[in-house]
Amino acid sequence: xxxxxxxxxxxxxxxxxxxxxxxxxxxxxxxxxxxxxxxxxxxxxxxxxxxxxxxxxxxxxxxxxxxxxxxxxx
Length: 74
Fold this sequence. Notes:
By secondary structure, the chain is low in regular secondary structure. The chain has one helix at 33-38, and strands at residues 22-24, 30-32, 52-53. The protein has a 3-stranded antiparallel sheet. Strand 1 (22-24) and strand 2 form a beta hairpin.
């Protein structure tokens, strides 16, 4: 199950489960779209992979599959 991390690892911007600007790599490293575009040029600084938009978990499944509350910072 995808963690849905709550923040950008670079700027610490809040990225709730329904954030339209949340980006992830294959290891679920999580960044906001601004940091991906302007700081990392589309390449994950942790693993070197590319980014894609993080899917939005349907609200009706949040109770059963809650998003992570653990903040990760670089």
